[in-house]
Amino acid sequence: MKSKAIFYHAGCPVCVTAEQNLAAALDPARFDLEPVHLGEQSSRLAEAKSQGVQSVPALWLDGQVFHINFGAALGDLG
C-alpha cells in the first residue's frame, strides 16, 4: 500500500524547485505525492495547519511534517 505525501507550498521559486526535486526523489511505487499550492488553494490552509504545518515549504509524510525551508508562515498566506 502506498503512503500519502503532501507537499504544501506557496509557489515561490524555492518551493517550485523543491516540488520538482521531491517528485523526482520519492519512489512513486511507495508514495502518492500531492503538491498543494496554498496561494491558489487557500481553502486547504486549515488542513495544513491541522497537519502541523507552520510554514511553507513543508512536506507531510506518514503523519509527520518536515519543514524544508522557511519561505512563509501559514498566517502570512491567509
From TrEMBL:
Pfam families: Thioredoxin_3
Official protein name in the record: Thioredoxin family protein
InterPro entries: Thioredoxin-like_fold, Thioredoxin-like_sf
UniProt cross-references to Gene3D superfamilies, sorted A to Z: Glutaredoxin
Record-annotated Thioredoxin-like fold domain positions: 8-67
